[in-house]
Amino acid sequence: MFDPTEAPGPSFTDVLRRVGLDPFAPVQQAAGGAPFEIRHGTTIVALRYADGVVMAGDRRATAGSSIAHRAMDKVHPADRHSGVAIAGAAGPAMEMVKLFQLQLEHYEKVEGSALSLEGKANQLSQMVRSNLGMAMQGFVVVPLFAGFDLRRGVGRIYSYDPTGGRYEETDFHADGSGGRDARTTIKLGWRPDLERHEAVELAVRALWNAADEDSATGGPDTARGIYPTVATITDSGFEYLPRDEVADRFAAVLSTGEALQ
Q1: Architecture of domain 40-256 in CATH?
Q2: pLDDT digits over 151-206, tens only?
Q3: CB atoms near residue 242 (< 10 Å)
Q4: Where are the domains of the chain?
Q5: Active-site residues: which are they?
Q6: Distance in angstroms (rounded) separating the CA atoms of residues 39 and 46
Q7: What are the C-alpha distances in Å from 74 to residues 43, 77, 97, 210?
Q8: pLDDT tens, residue by residue, 39-60
C-alpha cells in the first residue's frame, strides 16, 4: 500500500490517517448544541494487590438524567497482560478501546514483540489527546489503564485527563462521576499485601459506596442478575471474574456491614 520509504510503521492509527480514515477527525456540531443526549459511562476503579491489579466498573450508562443502559461493560482487555476501563462519552470510548486493542495487536505483528507496558500507556495517551477536538464538543473520554509489567514483575496503574495527560498511580485510582467516593473507600481499606479475594471485595465495596452517593453509578441489580464487571491482571494474564464470584463478594461485603462507611 505504501512506498517503503513512506511506510507508516507499526502505528495503526497512522495507517488509517494515510488512507483518509482519521478515527479522531473533529465532528460537526449543530448550532445550539448536540440534538441528542450523549450516553456516558460512569465509575471505574483499579487497585494493586499482592499478585497484580484488580479492575472493576459499574454497568450503568446514563443519558442526562435517564438510565440509558443497565449492562454496559466498561472493563476490557487491551492485550494479554493489560486492561483498559472507560468513563465518559460511551460511543467514542468504545471506539477508542477497539482501536487501542487493534493498535497493540498491529504493533506486535509488525515488530515481532509486544509493546512495553509504559509504551502501551503512552499510546493510549496519544489517542486521548487526539480526541481533544471531540472532547471540546462534549464527547469527553477518560480511560483508566492497568497491567502487569513483566519486566518489573508488578502491577501498574495509569490515569489520564481529557488533554492526554498520563499519570502513573502508586497504588489505586478511581474515575468517573462516582470516582471520588470510590477512591475514599479504597483509601480506607487498601494495604500493599492484599490477597485476591480481599482486593476484589474492596473494589466492589468502593463501587457500592459510589452508587450510594452518585445517581449515575449503578450498584448490583440482583433482580436482573447484573453485577459490576471485575477483572484481574497478573503474570498469567487478563481474566474476568465469573458473575457468581462477583455476586459472592458483594454478599460477603454486605454480610459484614462494612459496605456503607
Answers
A1: 4-Layer Sandwich (3.60)
A2: 999 999 999 999 999 999 999 999 999 999 999 999 999 998 999 999 999 999 99
A3: 10
A4: 40-256
A5: 42
A6: 23
A7: 9, 10, 10, 16
A8: 787 899 999 999 999 999 999 9
